[in-house]
Write a structure and sequence with these properties.
It is a single chain. The protein has five helices and eight strands. The protein has an eight-stranded mixed β-sheet with strand order 1-2-3-4-5-6-8-7, sandwiched between helices. By secondary structure, it is an alpha+beta fold. The longest helix has 16 residues. α1 crosses α3. It has a domain of about 130 residues: Gcn5-related N-acetyltransferase (GNAT) (Aminopeptidase), CATH 3.40.630.
Length: about 190
């Protein structure tokens, strides 16, 4: 079971459970084609984001595997909503997890996703006691790959044209880090 003490803090972010008040901010970037370019879905309507948010609001603790912990990322200094972060508990038996993150384009390129990913790794390793955490991204998504690399995750696979997404064959990159390789600093151990 993992129910973090909120907010989860990084040097510049506060990660917290989603609330109904997050609808406008979440819609602000989930509606953008540039944000969903490398994701499985198209830009979302306000109604679709509202349904998505309902699920995220119920995902503030991890009680069993097969579930996700969904956290809103906001700037610690101002409280401005900037990102959508997820820790998936893939398997209790194999102590496996996965991280995911989506940030508003206005806040990309500043290292905020790297900070959020480090916090997700810490929650997985220290909070859940996971052995291994992965991250996946479209092979063209160099920014997401860099976030994982900056957190000490190694590229374990480059699957060539393994999925047909949005009318084209796409590559997938798979990154991973083991608990013994992670030192909590966002750098390889």
């Amino acid at each position: 079971m993992l129910k973090p003490d909120y907010p989860v803090r990084t040097p510049r972010l506060a990660l917290r459970p989603f609330t109904a008040d997050d609808l406008d901010a979440l819609y602000e970037f989930h509606r953008l084609a540039e944000v969903t370019r490398y994701l499985y879905h198209e830009p979302r309507s306000r109604a679709e984001v509202s349904v998505l948010l309902e699920g995220k609001m119920t995902a503030s603790a991890l009680a069993s595997d097969g579930k996700a912990l969904c956290l809103a990322a906001e700037l610690a200094a101002t409280g401005q909503f900037v990102g959508d972060c997820t820790l998936f508990w893939l398997s209790r038996a194999h102590q496996q997890g996965e991280i995911g993150f989506i940030f508003h384009p206005a806040f990309q390129g500043r290292g905020l996703a790297t900070e959020a990913a480090a916090a997700l790794l810490r929650l997985g390793f220290e909070g859940l006691g996971l052995h291994r955490i992965i991250g996946r991204c479209d092979g063209r998504n160099h920014a997401s790959a860099k976030v994982m690399e900056h957190n000490g995750m190694r590229r374990e696979a480059h699957l060539v044209e393994n999925e047909f997404v949005k009318g084209e064959w796409t590559d997938e990159l798979i990154y991973a880090i083991l608990r013994r390789e992670w030192n909590g600093s966002g750098r390889p151990g």
